[in-house]
Amino acid sequence: MNEDEVVPSLVEVPAAIQKLVIAYYEAGLDHGFELGYRASEANNEATWATAAALVRGIADGQPYDQLCEQRGEQGRAERQRRLLRDRGIVP
Question: How many other β-carbons are positioned within 10 Å of the β-carbon of residue 77?
Fold first, then answer.
């Protein structure tokens, strides 16, 4: 568009063109919302996939008290077992 060109106001154009312009605007607006929604859904899906992989990895790993024993931290391992018993997580 040239700097010298003047864009007419919507009220200056015929009613049929006004309706057409508004319809195109609404279609573009709806399209923009749809793109944003899809992007948000894709982001959520990626986040949940990452979280699920992390939880699976933690669940498949060794318990914390066993890891402490492997590192030679017997006191820490016993404190972990006592904490789990006190909270009713293990018998």
Answer: 19
pLDDT, tens digit only, all 91 positions of the chain? 678 889 889 899 999 999 999 999 999 999 999 999 999 999 999 999 999 999 999 889 999 999 999 999 999 999 999 999 999 999 8
Taking residue 87's Cβ as centre, other Cβ atoms within 10 Å add up to: 8
Q: pTM of the predicted model, to two decimals?
A: 0.55
Question: Could you give the CA distance from residue 77 to residue 83 in angstroms, rounded to a whole number?
Answer: 10
- d(CA 54, CA 12) in angstroms, rounded, equals 60
Residue 36 CB partners (closer than 8 Å, separation 6+)? none
Sorted by sequence, the CB contacts under 8 Å of residue 83 that are 6+ apart come out as none
